[in-house]
Fold these 4 entries.
Entry 1:
Amino acid sequence: MAVYTDVDDDALAQFLTEYNLGEVLSMKGIAEGVENSNFLLETTRGRFILTLFEKRVAEADLPFFIGLMDHLALAGLSCPTPIHGIDGRALRRLAGRPAVIVSFLTGMSPRRPTVKQCASVGTALAGLHEAGRGFALTRENALSLAGWRRLVADCVTRADSVRDGLGRTIADELAFLESHWPADLPRGVIHADLFTDNVFCIGDDVSGIIDFYFACNDFYAYDLAICLNAWCFEPDGAFNATKAMALSRGYTAARPLSVAEAAAVPVLARGAALRFLLTRLYDWLNQVPGALVRPKDPIEYLNKLRFHAQASGPETYGITSA
Ligand SMILES: Nc1ncnc2c1ncn2[C@@H]1O[C@H](COP(=O)(O)OP(=O)(O)O)[C@@H](O)[C@H]1O
Ligand SMILES: N[C@@H](CCOP(=O)(O)O)C(=O)O
């Protein structure tokens, strides 16, 4: 996460009177992440994460995110559990922002995932999709085609200040995806941002998943495509087919893909690359003065987009259907 909003000691002390969490020992801003303000909170009852929801998070979506974490934890997924206050509510306000406290998970995010960690995240993703079944609330993906169109309109005229020709490439890509996006595939609750920094591992195994603030209802295979983008490229930009095969096999061993899902993976991977290119580009062009945040490189996702546009088919990603 990042820190956009500061919380003073008095406001925090007052806020914590609403919970049974004991006395504050310390609170530190967390520099990682880009979306919300996050703090590591230590009290006499343990360690917690305090999140203040910022810009891209609509308040109307918060009951979905918080209810989803409650649902997934109850279904046995290792994810943060919202801490409910004395009045039973998990969501309240602090420093003028909606705020929640969640349980702290142990583990390390892999900086450069191993093949075995890729296999494990594939299995964990399928487990997340399974655990999400039966969740009563729904949320459409605000960052699917219609959302991309809005982001393109916001960024396209300034895109060439980041890379010559980027505006044209983005406009062409959006047009391609609008005419090739699958109409219907198996769908349900997806994480939609399962990057390495949102996964904790102990050794080769995934030990926990965090950051459900992009979760929504969309195609399961799109979530797999997001993971292939985030986990299977090396720091020099090279696609690692061994990691992709491990990730895909980890997923399909737990949840086999239909023929239509498997065939759609290349275009879904292309869409996922455009989605992260656009949000990164938007953040790059609209930096918040004074915020503790490290904007992410949009060009990394331009390069991934180019890779997917050349992919020969689902076998590029080690994918076979059931
Ligand atoms: N429940 C948690 N347990 C332990 N660490 C956490 C937890 N939630 C967040 N963090 C830490 O905060 C960082 C940012 O969290 P994240 O949810 O990814 O933020 P953002 O939504 O702003 O991107 C993580 O990389 C991790 O270090
Ligand atoms: N994963 C996205 C940015 C969202 O940040 P996160 O910290 O919530 O994962 C990206 O890499 O562009």
Entry 2:
Amino acid sequence: MFSNIGVVGAGAMGTAISQTICDNTQKVSLYARREELVDSINTTRFNKDYFPNIRLKDNIIATNDLNDLKDAEIIFLTLPSSTIREVCSQLKYIISQDCVLVNTAKGLEKGSQKRMSEVIMEETGRPACVLSGPNIAVEMVERTFSSASIACENKQYLEKVEKALSTFRFKVSASCDVIGVEYCGVIKNIIAISQGICEGMKINDNARFSVFTKTYNETKDMIEKFGGNRNTVDDYCGFGDIITASTLNVSRNHTLGVLYGQRIVIDEKASGVLFEGKNTIVIMKKLCKKHNIDCATVDFTYDVIINRINPKKAFEIFWDKL
Ligand SMILES: NC(=O)c1ccc[n+]([C@@H]2O[C@H](COP(=O)([O-])OP(=O)(O)OC[C@H]3O[C@@H](n4cnc5c(N)ncnc54)[C@H](O)[C@@H]3O)[C@@H](O)[C@H]2O)c1
């Protein structure tokens, strides 16, 4: 039993992780920036902004003071990838030497194209543990059955995080393939978009799942070229998450693909809805070029979303590469 585990970011994933680990620790310190949300969680036991109908466990204590995490044995970072560097640059002055940082953000750093564990290492000087899987937040908040892959170069850190997460209902697959687990989380966003486009343009199902097969194999090839283990794609972070994000209407990336497949273009500035997946496509296109990788799935999403090529025409180019 741990005494204090921190979670930074009280959004969907932060609440989900808190509800998952709370059986294995005396206290979960859930950091939220807004004092009003902290007060509301601590007094009502509900995160009204995200899950107004699900009561949170009593040992989840919200705080808006990062210093409350100074004795945390583990800290889960449940933040957008764009904020990980900035938050780590603050945390490094607060956390203990033994504290393990766990990244849950599925993205690469814009500009540097670095993985989040690389960003965390640069900022805090310690190897991060990474978590990725078919983790629909609301299901984890409800404490139904879920799973995730975790990876870390440091075996002791990995065992610690495995202990913190594992329960009868939450299954964990631990490995040392940090690169593989992180890239699965990134590439699955591209796959969700490509499958969304196919759905939006109402391509027949035989065709959709034929290209899905190609995509799955391309994911393995890509991860190997990036230095990861191709078999990691068969784990929860790969197969499980790819299927979840590509076939269910719960993913924002999938929705982005469906809209473009229907030739509906969202004005992000006017609507206020940001599609992070667009950045991922641009970053992945650059990375493929850098590593000399020919990936039909990345090209397809780039053609439709960035170059705005007619999806039917782009699909035929994709199909021709099968
Ligand atoms: N939602 C999921 O099912 C899910 C599953 C797996 C992984 N993730 C990953 O978890 C991360 C968070 O996703 P989410 O769905 O919870 O998003 P979200 O928007 O629901 O929550 C993010 C939270 O981070 C807070 N935040 C932003 N910048 C911050 C900062 N500088 N300091 C402190 N808090 C800050 C926001 O206020 C918000 O509450 C993403 O990177 C995503 O890839 C999400």
Entry 3:
Amino acid sequence: MRSFDAIVIGAGQAGPFLAARLAEAGRKVALVERKFLGGTCVNAGCMPTKTLVASAHAARMVQRAAEFGIVTQGASSVDMAKVRDRAASVTHNARQGLEDWLGGIDNLTLLRGQARFEDARTVIVNGERLQAPQIYINVGARPTIPDYPGLADIPYLTSTSILQLDTLPRHLVIVGGSYIGLEFAQMYRRFGAQVTVIERGERIASREDADISDAIAGILSAEGIDIRTGTGDLRFATDGADIEIVAGGETLYASHVLVATGRTPNTDDLELEAAGVTCDARGYITVDDRLQTNVKGLWALGDCNGRGAFTHTSYNDFEIAAANLLDGEDRKVSDRILGYALYIDPPLGRVGMSERAARASGRPLLVSVRPMSAVGRAVEKDETQGFMKLVADASSGQILGAAILGTGGDEAIHGILDAMNAKTSHHALKWAVPIHPTVSEQVPTLIGGLQPV
Ligand SMILES: Cc1cc2nc3c(=O)[nH]c(=O)nc-3n(C[C@H](O)[C@H](O)[C@H](O)COP(=O)(O)OP(=O)(O)OC[C@H]3O[C@@H](n4cnc5c(N)ncnc54)[C@H](O)[C@@H]3O)c2cc1C
Ligand SMILES: NC(=O)c1ccc[n+]([C@@H]2O[C@H](COP(=O)([O-])OP(=O)(O)OC[C@H]3O[C@@H](n4cnc5c(N)ncnc54)[C@H](O)[C@@H]3O)[C@@H](O)[C@H]2O)c1
């Protein structure tokens, strides 16, 4: 039996930073990781996929070169092994950076192995008992595999295994039309594959307003991606070298199938019952506004608590836990204003409420919409697809939410995100003098166009 002041299970986007802060504050900490330091983001999520998105953007610019007056000699092609290796090396470097950093922290013991609970104060790793009065769970999530007939018998890909591909699929069929499905759809189309997206819901990116979903579908269809929605249940079988997919009465033949139907929290092999920790029906650990579970002294951070599904929300969970524990603050998850981006090209930057959610709240609203074709910078770059939208409370002037689907949208949205965090009303932003020529310079004009709905 080894005793610690704190045990952190999982080295994702909250665990390492919390373990380091606790150790630097003089606590004796064990950080347990069963696979790779950095978790999903570094090894199978944001970092490799955004590296692939950058390769796909380069491919697209080569395909469009003549439109910009650039003459290329002969046909271009994509070296998929090099594309894959580039993503793997970005991951490798980030992981190595974490290894070096964590390895040099006094008071921090890094243990490799699967952790499971024996009771609320005891964790077993590689047969050894570890005890601590405080335990932090940061175990993340994994791809959800639906129970469709025949799926288990075909060599389907997930967002993790597709990162190993070093050849171009002839026809990639993607099941699920949300973040993962759409990002991979566009990158593989740009690499040169035939791509079909199958979404069981009525529209892709269905958490967004319908006008945003429609615009995204338009952008992807214009690049030759076949999008099928409302497909219902699917059936899979092998047909020679092909995979046969029966979707909504139609049969498709794919060389590869990517399953992108959401993620399942890694809480089922932790033996949480032994600690008395409760989960919801989908396996997410139930936490309060300060991330404590129903058991005192046990916290859950990141994707496994179901309160966020992004790297920045997991990292923010670390910030909340650390501030409350070490800095005498009282920070709460409900104070977080959620922003995120969908990294298709052009990207979607989002913050706060959708228009649909704002309307459902019953407040008096102001809404403004402006097409990217009116944005000088977008015209200059010949990237005028998309639009920006802002929703504000008509009585208080409070900005409730915004979306920028367009070139630079993932960055430009931060001006609005910052204003929302500063609790600034839209009136204050109207007279800002932004830099020309940027996408952000349209924000005051967007605000000037606010109309009651
Ligand atoms: C393809 C893809 C692209 C993404 N792109 C983005 C993006 O662009 N932006 C963004 O914000 N988010 C993105 N995400 C989401 C983001 O990666 C996650 O939200 C984030 O990594 C969650 O961090 P976490 O700390 O909760 O868990 P994780 O990063 O998943 O870490 C959990 C860790 O716990 C370990 N673990 C699990 N169980 C145990 C156990 N019993 N014992 C010991 N260790 C255990 C795991 O091995 C893992 O290392 C993407 C995700 C995917 C799949
Ligand atoms: N840019 C980013 O920040 C980014 C990128 C990738 C992933 N992520 C994170 O990863 C998580 C998982 O992403 P995701 O796209 O897999 O999940 P998701 O939950 O966002 O979307 C899953 C999609 O699959 C569809 N679907 C679900 N079950 C289905 C079925 N049986 N058949 C057909 N369609 C089905 C859903 O209707 C939905 O559109 C997200 O929550 C997100 O936070 C973030």
Entry 4:
Amino acid sequence: MRLFTSQRMRQADATAVGLGFPSLLLMEAAGRAVAEWVLERFPGRPVAVLCGRGNNGGDGLVAARHLMLAGARVRVFAAEGHSGDAAQMQRALQAHALEPRPLEQWQPQPGEVIVDALFGTGLNRRLEGSWAELVGRINASSCPVVAVDLPSGLPFEPHVRAHSTLVLAALKSEHLFYPWREACGRIVLAGIGMPERSLFQPDLPELLTPQAMAALLPRRSGDAHKGSVGRVLIAGGYANYTGAPALAALGAHRAGAGLVSVAYPAGLELHLPLESVRYPQEHWSPEGLSHVRAEAAAVGMGAGPQAEPAAQAVLSRRIPTVLDADALQPGIVESYARAGTPAVITPHPGEAARLLGSEAASIAASPLEAARTLAERFAGVTVVLKGGPTVLARQRGSGVELAVGTTGNPAMASGGMGDVLSGVIAALLAAGLEPWDAARLGVYLHGLSGDRRGQVGLLAHDLAEELPQARAALERGEVRAFWEWR
Ligand SMILES: NC(=O)C1=CN([C@@H]2O[C@H](COP(=O)(O)OP(=O)(O)OC[C@H]3O[C@@H](n4cnc5c(N)ncnc54)[C@H](O)[C@@H]3O)[C@@H](O)[C@H]2O)[C@H](O)CC1
Ligand SMILES: [K+]
């Protein structure tokens, strides 16, 4: 499943029409889905449908007809000047003796549900004047708003704040990225019958779905033993940063590693899980790690100035490695890329800025672009740019493949969460997954565990404790995506 932009959705729409699919059928399906959602979610409530002059308004006119036919009390207010499909839908409504009133005449009525069909993917600049004023009045009313496709005004200010958004054909960036996502409310995705070929756009970012992620789970055979399911080496820790490697170790254990070994500066007091094996290092060297049994590693958590020697020592093992925290320095990442050792980097925006020599704020503002740039800059390395949502990237052929996480929540904004993620991805690498699969599944499981324990005050080790149940639920097919299907 792919994440669209408004522009790419319009392209898909044009492709469908180019294939001979009548656009009027799409609008009919869209409006019908809106009506069905309103009737299901707000049974018996009167409805005001507010229609713009584009196709989003056309969807609203269809919704009004179906609401009326289902016996709902409907008032319709529409902008002047519909053309094309929307004009036909206006005539269809008028044939049922339902005459839209001018939009300016709309006043909110208590108890009424508002269908926001003012603007969808065709908005090309911020709303101003009477449009901005109308959006202000919608938001000030105490009526629940069902937005058609997008809350009108997004991705700019001002915009409608919706109770729910009935998304047409595919999710668009605004439905996933903050701050816009908060305006969408519940997200309900309606298929509307677009031909599959028009939606086939593999260069768009992949959305991580429960089905696709469940298929990646490493299977365990009946005769599994601790040496056959993946052993992990964690390398980190320095001065008073003793929690980070311990949390990474916990993440690896809870993600199913058969054995977790932790290498750290000798003399450091680490509160490791009882099950971890300790390898104190007098100084970091390939020899010091040569006898540690591991198929994958994670390095950098709390390593401070020791990150460089620790990363070079681990690199000598030539095993797939997660580079996190202090190991996220251009020189270290480049040395892994040059050596051709499979590497996954897991920066947050601040660390990504350090890698790219840019600003954290600009990275957080355009994470898809930033992840793409990281994948181009460090060719061959798998990028996990952490955030809400996390974005993944890797170079593939002459282009960059992108993916976007669909799990996780703001309760996960606390120290140590990233260390757990490193351990999880390392465990999946050790189990034999390719870096791209280990990174996507690791991000998904980590966020899913956070969602299952989603209260503020969640600690990183609470999240780690949830990993086995999250994984089992995913395996049993019990996990649902955050959007609902219609
Ligand atoms: N395949 C699908 O997903 C389908 C989507 N449908 C619906 O169509 C809209 C997109 O319709 P479109 O006509 O392209 O655009 P809008 O209705 O969003 O609005 C365009 C309208 O608004 C004008 N405009 C743009 N920006 C502004 C502004 N800032 N202020 C004032 N006016 C503005 C622009 O010039 C146009 O006149 C999509 O979201 C779905 O709801 C189909 O119905 C079914 C298939
Ligand atoms: K809308």
